[in-house]
Amino acid sequence: MIRHTWPDTALPPPAPVPLSTSDERIPLQLRRELDAACARPAAQQPAWPDATAVHAARALLGAAPPITSPSEVRLLRRRLAAVAHGRAFVLQGGDCAETFEENTEEHISGTVRLLGDMAEELSSTGLPVVTIGRVAGQYAKPRSKPVDVLGLPVYRGDIVNGQDPVPSARRPDPDRLVRAHSHASRAMNYLRALRPVTGDVFVSHEALLLDYELPQLRADHPSEGGPAEVFATSGHFLWIGERTRQLDGAHVAVAALLANPVGVKIGPGTTAEEVEQYADRLNPRRVPGKLTFISRMGRENVGEVLPGLVERIRESGHPVVWVCDPMHGNTHESESGYKTRDYDDIRAEVEVFFEVHRQLGTHPGGVHLELTASDVTECLGASSGVADADLAARYETACDPRLNHRQSLDLVRVVAALLGG
Ligand code: PEP
Ligand code: MN
């Protein structure tokens, strides 16, 4: 195996471009609050090699047409309020990492049709389904290690660098911020065209990269009057990942100022005190539909950890949506060396999630899945019977292993049975 020495590791890190919003379209008081939020430490930001290029990219993003509109975001907030009240169910899914290359008609329509079929299965239980794609902006990846097995800087998603295992591709490139926006706009345009087929599909991504999110903030006044609200126009629903959910960090502080519904991924290390603090900070006015907790505990931990968190929130009276991500706590390396997930673990985590809510009298509000309509071989098991030896055949993900078409349909039948029963 060739180990690369990354040529820039010996250089001092470049001066970061200040994270701030000087956008005069946002009222001064809100701008001040945003700037204070951005002054907090922001985890997982790339070391861009060229500050001038980052400024230029941010100016282009600030001038570009928004991807989503405040009225769409408000509609999603109302739909999620219904989920918080136990009257609807969330189906959120798509690639772990979207790529520019796969931003194609075939790939997007495949994901949207699959989500549509899954939503139909779920709505047979009588509950309306709120469908949210990990689509049109899911380009930034948090990483646990700064270098990969070859000694190269890790791939951080197409919005930052390239997947090819060579130093030039892995260098963060600020032009990618603008390319990501163009791709997201194209994907959103196509989703809107597909809509009369499929019903509303909202879009979501991890709000990881602040250089992408901040220039796309816009202020809007509610039609019924009232103070201006700030919208992230990069998507409808944004979430904060497990690696950037520091209570004193920039991601939480920025999300607290947004009118968008936001999610927080919570792993097995999350405490009851923390979830209550997230709720107090991210939704102090207790607006139903504003805050979703996306629990990603792992099969082994969910029964142990989740009940205490749900109980604490129930006692606090905060109106939150509880969503189960049964993917991210169940990742392991297969014997053949692939990062994979076992369908049985995924299914078991969903079952325990439902059981916890049944016991506590709270609403299991949805599922959050990494999936694709292609017949990939990335996760093990289910009726397609993917075995360890099959993983090499079609292991195509840019990051985490996804459920394939059949595995997704198998799982949604399980979820529908739990929801209906
Ligand atoms: C993801 O959703 O792809 C992800 C990285 O999740 P988490 O933050 O839960 O690890
Ligand atoms: Mn993932």
Automatic annotation (TrEMBL):
This is Phospho-2-dehydro-3-deoxyheptonate aldolase. The keyword Transmembrane helix does not apply. It comes from Saccharopolyspora hordei. Binds 1 divalent cation per subunit. The enzyme is active with manganese, cobalt or cadmium ions. Belongs to the class-II DAHP synthase family. Phosphoenolpyruvate binds at R134, E242, R243, K265, R296. Residues 1-21 are annotated as: Disordered. Pathway: Metabolic intermediate biosynthesis; chorismate biosynthesis; chorismate from D-erythrose 4-phosphate and phosphoenolpyruvate: step 1/7. It is an enzyme of class 2 (transferase). GO terms for biological process: amino acid biosynthetic process; aromatic amino acid family biosynthetic process; chorismate biosynthetic process. Its EC number is 2.5.1.54. GO terms for molecular function: 3-deoxy-7-phosphoheptulonate synthase activity.
